[in-house]
Specification:
The protein is α/β, with parallel strands linked by helices and 345 residues long. It is built from nine helices and nine strands. Strand 6, helix 4 and strand 7 form a beta-alpha-beta unit.
Length: 345
């Protein structure tokens, strides 16, 4: 049986040429020009960020790291598709939480002039994928971007922001470094991600140990995402969801791939160890509840895509309230007149 059966049903642009990227070296930064009062007073400390850095560094050092990058590569390509949909060039762009650079490899230098890539994992930055765009790699936290206000024409982020403790602050930082009329395009895991794995572990642990602990990290709800973007200062918002289903030989192969992606759980309240019989029971439950006809088991990844713009006077704005010159009732009369005219012809 193949290592993982992947199902992608979409039309994609032909890949751009890939040549060695121009990388002047890894730069380190711990803090930057953050907007006044940007720290959220009620920010929660859900994730162990130091553990997440170690997980991502471990994954980037693996000799066959590319074997586990199929999901991040696919979502990075979909982010690039959304960049191409905007009819303009971006002289200076930023990738927040870039990993090994899964977005830059799908873009070309005619669209993006120069790419800054930031991540908390230094080994990921040292082993970035090839791209034809000149890149600068910066070691920095998503919540503390070391750039000045109004710096970038484009900011992108793919499958990274779901691990930050203070998502409102991270979005405010992104808005801060964007130029007026700049655009942010991002993707993050949604609440239904890995629901099959979550359910199987909970049922098995409850049956074997009399209760369960969270083994899949919490995710942001799609209803909250638009509110968070608006609160950060973005306008002309677009939020949509998508699902990618990947088939695996079994639950243990899925968990191995999650570790290889650097996506293991790092929540502070995680349970450090699961008993062997509980894991075996969870694998049996997974297969019994979700097994495909060919014997593989599916894993669902829900992806939230978001687009937000920084305000500029040139952008279209809604008319003032009460400025309409025609009511909806009159619009209905116009439709009737048009339909009568077509019948008379």
């Amino acid at each position: 049986m193949p290592r993982a059966v992947r199902v992608w049903l979409l039309g994609r642009r032909p890949p751009t040429a890939r040549v060695p990227g121009k990388n002047p070296g890894l730069r380190t930064a711990t803090s930057g020009g953050s907007p006044p009062g940007s720290t959220s007073p009620r920010a929660l400390n859900i994730f162990d960020r130091d553990l997440k850095r170690k997980q991502k560094n471990w994954a980037a050092r693996q000799p066959e790291a590319v074997k586990f990058e199929y999901l991040k590569d696919e979502v990075g390509g979909r982010i690039a598709d959304r960049v191409y949909d905007i009819a303009r060039d971006f002289p200076l762009a930023l990738n927040v939480g870039c990993g090994r650079g899964y977005i830059a490899q799908h873009l070309n230098k005619e669209t993006v002039g120069k790419f800054f890539q930031t991540d908390i994992a230094e080994h990921a930055l040292k082993n970035t994928l090839e791209t034809e765009i000149p890149t600068v790699n910066v070691l920095a936290d998503e919540e503390f971007l070391p750039f000045r206000e109004n710096t970038f024409d484009l900011v992108v982020s793919s499958l990274s922001l779901h691990w930050v403790n203070d998502l409102p602050r991270a979005l405010e930082q992104i808005h801060y470094v964007l130029k007026p009329d700049g655009v942010f395009i991002g993707a993050m895991f949604g609440g239904d991600t890995l629901y099959e794995l979550r359910c199987s572990l909970q049922l098995a642990e409850t049956e074997r140990e009399g209760g369960f602990s969270p083994h899949v990290s919490p995710f942001t709800a799609v209803n909250d995402l638009g509110h968070l973007l608006g609160r950060a200062g973005f306008n002309t918002l677009t939020v949509d969801t998508d699902e990618i289903q990947v088939n695996y030989p079994g639950m243990f192969e899925l968990m191995e791939d999650l570790q290889g992606m650097g996506e293991s759980n790092c929540a502070w309240n995680r349970k450090a160890l699961l008993h062997r019989d509980t894991m075996l029971a969870a694998a049996a439950v997974y297969g019994e509840m979700y097994r495909n006809e060919d014997g593989s088991v599916p894993a669902t990844y829900q992806i939230y895509y978001m687009i937000g713009w920084k305000y500029h006077d040139s952008q279209a704005r809604p008319a003032q309230r009460g400025s309409a010159t025609m009511s909806f009732g009159e619009l209905g009369k116009i439709n009737n007149l048009m339909s009568q005219g077509k019948k008379s012809k």
